[in-house]
Amino acid sequence: GGAEMTIHNLYIFDRAGTCLHYGEWHRRRQPGIPRQEEFKLMFGMLFSLRSFVGKMSPTDMRDGFVSFQTSRYRLHYYETPSGLRLVLNTDLGVPSAREALHHIYSHLFVELVVKNPLCPPRQPVQSDLFRSRLDAFVRSLPFFGPRPA
Questions:
Q1: Tens digit of pLDDT for each residue in 113-143?
Q2: CB count, 10 Å around CB of 81?
């Protein structure tokens, strides 16, 4: 019955590839490798995709790539001017998560992490407030839940 609309997980990387935050909600199966290894693979894939898309593009792209999909899920990508990279994996029923990612960055990350003297830059985020606000925001999105069968 129709494409599912569900959020699986979210990664926030800095420009050097450190995973500053990872959250998951409806992740169907674990990758079977250590988390740090998964972060490295994800960042490496983003890095390759980004340069590939840039080289193949006939015109200069302002936004670079914003999403790609497999037969099972869609990866939404948002890169900030400072090189922070946000990745949200969802079911195919979610057409765009750009506004949600922008909100996570500008209203949650900047306000609760960047402006927080207790959160050192380039370190994984230790702020419980950021985590709980982010979780509440993600759960409030119209495309959050697995729809009742």
A1: 999 999 988 899 999 999 999 999 999 998 8
A2: 5
The tokens for 25 are 């909600």
Q: Distance (Å, rounded) from C-alpha 3 to C-alpha 92?
A: 6
| Amino acid in the structure at residue 131 | R
Domain that holds residue 104: 7-140
CA 90/CA 94 separation, integer angstroms: 7
DSSP string, 77-146: EEE-TT--EEEEEE-TT----HHHHHHIIIIIIIIIIIT-TTS-TTS----HHHHHHHHHHHHHSTT-SP
127 assigned to some structural domain? yes
Integer Cα distance of 39 and 34 in angstroms: 9
